[in-house]
Design a protein that fits this description.
Order of helices and strands: EHEEEEHEEE
Largest sheet: 4 strands, mixed
Number of strands: 8
Number of helices: 2
Radius of gyration: 16 Å
Distance between the termini: 31 Å
Strand content: 35-45%
C-alpha cells in the first residue's frame, strides 16, 4: 500500500497546474515532472490544454495532480497543507519566500516562536499559501 498527495486544480486555479508543478520542481532539490497526460478533445472533465493526470516529485516524494473545469463547490483549503522540514534555516527561508511571493500570502510568519506560544515543531515555524492556493507549513529542525 502507498499514499500520495493528490492536488486537484479547480475554479480559479484550473489551468494553472502545469505552471505550478514546473515552479515547485524548480525550487525543490531532487525534483522532477515524471509525466503529464492532457485531456483529449471533447473528453469530459477538461480541454486539451488541461492536465488530466500528472505525476511529479518534490525532493524524492511523489505527488499527483489533475485539473477540472467543472463547476466544483470546493477548492484548496489551508486545513490541508504540505509540511516541509529541514535543518537548514537559509534553505527553509528561501522556500518560504519563494512560495509566499507573487500573490501568495503569509499566514504565520517564519520566525522563532519559543517563549511566545512555541508551535512545538522545531527551531522556527511558518505557514503560507502560494499563488496557486496550496498551503505550505515550514519548520527549521534542530
Amino acid at each position: 500500500m502507498s499514499t500520495t498527495i493528490f492536488l486537484t486544480f479547480v475554479g480559479d486555479q484550473c489551468g494553472k497546474a502545469e505552471e505550478a508543478i514546473k515552479f515547485y520542481t524548480s525550487i525543490f532539490p531532487n525534483s522532477e515532472i515524471k509525466s503529464i497526460t492532457k485531456y483529449s478533445e471533447g473528453e469530459a472533465g477538461g480541454t486539451p490544454e488541461l492536465i488530466k493526470y500528472g505525476i511529479f516529485t518534490l525532493n524524492g516524494t511523489d505527488y499527483m495532480c489533475s485539473e477540472s473545469n467543472y463547476n466544483h463547490s470546493w477548492s484548496f483549503t489551508p486545513g490541508v497543507s504540505i509540511f516541509v522540514s529541514d535543518n537548514s534555516d537559509s534553505f527553509i527561508q528561501i522556500l518560504f519566500d519563494k512560495l509566499s511571493a507573487n500573490g501568495g500570502q503569509i499566514m504565520v510568519p517564519l520566525e522563532d516562536y519559543k517563549g511566545e506560544g512555541d508551535y512545538g515543531f522545531g527551531k522556527k515555524f511558518g505557514w503560507c499559501e502560494d499563488k496557486y492556493g496550496i498551503s505550505w507549513q515550514f519548520v527549521v529542525t534542530e
